[in-house]
Structures are given as structure tokens and as C-alpha cells.
Input
Amino acid sequence: MKRITKILLAILSGLLMTFGWPEHGFPLLLFVGLVPLLLVEHEQWKNRKENSWFGIFGYAYLAFLVWNALTTYWIYGSTLVGAIAAIVLNTLFMSIVFTAFHVTHRNMTGGKGSYLALIGYWMSFEYLHLRWDLNWPWLNLGHGFAAYNQWIQWYEYTGVFGGTLWILLVNFLIFFILRDVAEKSISKRLLWFRSALTIFLVAVPIVVSLIMYRNYVEKPSPVDIVVVQPNVDPYNEQYELGPSVILDRMLTLARSKADSNTQFIVCPESALQEYVWEDRFEQSQSLRSLRQFNRQYRQLAFVTGISTRKLFEDGEPLSLTARKFKDADKYYDSYNTALFVNHDSTYQKYHKSRLTPGVEKMPYPKLFKFLENYAIDLGGTVGSLGTDNERKPFIVNDSLRIAPCICYESAYGEFMNGFVRNGANLIFVITNDGWWGNTPGHRQHLLFSSIRAIETRRSIARSANTGISCFINQRGDIQQRTGYWTPAAIRQQINANDKLTFYVRYGDYLGRIGLLVAGLMALLTVSFGIRNRSAMLKGH
Output
């Protein structure tokens, strides 16, 4: 195989993955997206005496660069530096994973068992990529079916890792067929068997899911909610208009839908443009206005985004994100906060805990705290924000608790499970998606909420400032989807649910199994490598 052919195959892999990705991609392409790259890897393995183990890295990097760049280029709308960093680093991590698989393949001399390494390594990568400070879950393979919620109802048992495993297995089966046909090393009977197995593996999960979708019936437990989409331009209005102007805009929209039966009004992330000290909520003009609005309705509560600060008392242990006042020997933390303002004027708060790297958090603050002042400025608080250690739902009464999900957090399955295990039976997603402009970014972000609804079987009310607001039922269907960059208020009753799904109970267990497989394959790689080296030395 000529070098140009390998390059074209690598590019083809990247394009197939791109054209399979939501919102407008067709996910069946994901089942063949890795096949061209696997063919390149096989060619490198066959000619391993002429090719170094590192030779596959360049082809892998090219394939994953095409995929990353064409699916997440929209990050540049908020920050060009952030877009370059996300694309370059995520491509690097994926390429390292694929290169590690190639090393295992070489050391195990091409046995089919060596292909388990790619499953283990890739699923371990996705699992760890959700949990370290450089987290970026956007291109986890299981998210690729987000626009086809009727195909993935079984995610309530597996989460997105089930989708990742599904994609990898089908890619392998198709690759084995093409490889063996090209090398004329497969009988017709075996070819028919593998072809049937591949069709079975693709079709059965879809058919099972369609049956689950059709038969799933929500238990009636209605909650009456108004979602507000104020459409405040995050670049030209959000931090320039006065807080009262923005609040009046939201309350006017809310008033157009609310009545005495409304239980919640949900407003987006950073909706209240006041920095409020958490021990001085009563002094906030915005919060006084909200309380006054609430008193017009008998049972109304507000959930809204706000930036808050906490002052550390003398002698109180400081967090890693604590900031020092410039003119005093005092420290404080800043938070991206979801605030619950009850009809009786009591407050509950939750601090966003999955922070956007480089924007809201400096990765590994113990090492890089000195770089905080250079964090990307999107118009709000700059530098690392404080977080909550626990997923704390808002307690409404004995039978109703709300999971407050802020923006980026809706891309994390097991993270959201924490709210549900702590009693949440509804999810409110509050976000501000206007940073990226009218690009696939805000639409992909919306679709991830459909997956969270299926995984947890929780209804969702989603308020996006300049993105897309909606309601999502427990099957992941998007309802009353608003237009992009359009002020809107929508109202609907959605059902609360107390039952815990298998995935909520056990989380990313497939990812943890992937870690075990990866560890085993890494040990076998080292063992076979030592054996092969010893054999070579004896041969000389």
C-alpha cells in the first residue's frame, strides 16, 4: 500500500466520523468510521520490519484531526486559542490511544485478541477523559447517537459507554471482513457468517430500543414549569446592560406564561448580572425583585443562574481556588451558581462543579495557579472558580427534588447520576450557548440532554440564554424547541420520576471494565515484548 493511499484512508476515517456525528450526521457511518484507519494499521503491522511502531501515529493524528476539527471548530466563536487547544490536544490523546493499540498488536504478533486492546484503551481514555482536569467529553463515541434517541433507549442500562462499545465492535467486524476478503483468507461460509453477525449486531440494539421506546410510559406526576429564554447577547449586552434591564426582560417573558398554577420559572446560566456575596443575599436588588415577583403567585419558585462569592473567615481553610483581595489580607471564592428562590423567599444554591477547562478552571491549580490571570475571558469572572464536592439537588418538598445542571455539566452521565441518587426526580439544565454563534455547538449541547434524560429517565426543563430552550421527556424526545437567538417563554407540565435506572445505580461500569481490560492488555504487551526481544537475542 502506497503512502498516499494510507493518507487518503486516514482522511476518509476522519470524514466518515464527521458525517456520522450529530446534529445532521447519519450515525450508521460511525460503524465504519474507524475501518479505513484500521486498514492502515493492519498494513503497518504487516510490514512492521520496515515500519517503526511510531509510524502509525501520524496517520492516526491525521484521521482524528479531521474529525476533531470538523466537528468542534465552532469553539473558535468564543476563543480561538481554546479551539486550537481543544482540537490539538484531543487529537493527540486519541492518537496516543490508537498508537498504544498498534504497539500491543505488534507485540502480540497480530492475534485477534490484540484487538481487545483498542476497546480497552479507548474506553479507558473516554472514562478518564471525563474525570481529569483537561476533561472534554464532546467526542465520546456514545454521544454520536444523540440525535437518534429512539435507537438508544437501552442507554438506561449502559450509559454512553454502551454506545462506544457498540461502535467499536461493529467497526472491528467490518474491518475483519474487508481485510480477509482483500487477502483472500476467508471462506464463503465464514464470510456469510460474519456478515450476518455484523447485521445482527447493528440491528438488534436498534430494534430492542424501538420496542422500549414504544412501550415506555411515564408515570403521571406533573410539575408545571415556565422556561425563559431572554436572548441576551453574551458579547454585546450581557455584561454591559444594567442588571435591572436584563431582569426586567426575563420577568416580562415569564409573566406572559405564568399564572397561579405555575410551580417553577427556570432562567438560564448567569441570568442575574449581579455579583452577590452569599452571606448577603438580602442586599441584592435583583433578588429582592425576584422575591417580589414570587409573591404575586401562590406557589412559584425561581431557578436561575447567578455569579456568587464567598468570603473566607479568619482561620478558615482556604480552597485551591481562593482569591486574595488586592487591598486586604482576606480571601474569597467565586462561583458559577444555580440559585433556587422559593415562594417563601428562602434560598438554596448549587455551585457548578464540572468547569470548562481554560475558561472557568485552570487545570491542575497546584501546578499552574500562577497562570490563572491568563485564563480565557468570556466577559465574566476570570480564573478558576470554586466548586461543590457533592451533587446537591434543590429540595422543594418531601416528594420533589430538582437537579440543577449548569451548562457543560449536561455532557457528563455519571456526574448527573449523583443528583439522581441524592433524590432528584427532575432535571433543570441552565446554560448560555451564545458564545459559539449559530454553529453546531449549541445544537450538539442540546442533544446531550436527551441522552441524560434516557440514562436517568428524568424529564428535563432546559433554559438556554441564546441557544435552544425546550422540554425533554423521559424517552429523550425534545418538545417545544425554541428558535435560536429568539426571546421566548415556554410552558409545560413534565413528569417527575423516582425510579432509579440500572445506569444510575451503577454508573460508568463499562468504563471501569474497560480500565481492567486495558490494564490486562498493557501487561500482555510488556510480557510479549520481553519474550519477543529475548527470542531475537537468542536468534542472533
Remarks:
- Confidence is low (pLDDT under 50) at residues 376-381.
- The chain has two domains: 3-215+508-539, 222-505.
- The radius of gyration is 25 Å.
- The CA atoms of residues 130 and 412 lie 7 Å apart.
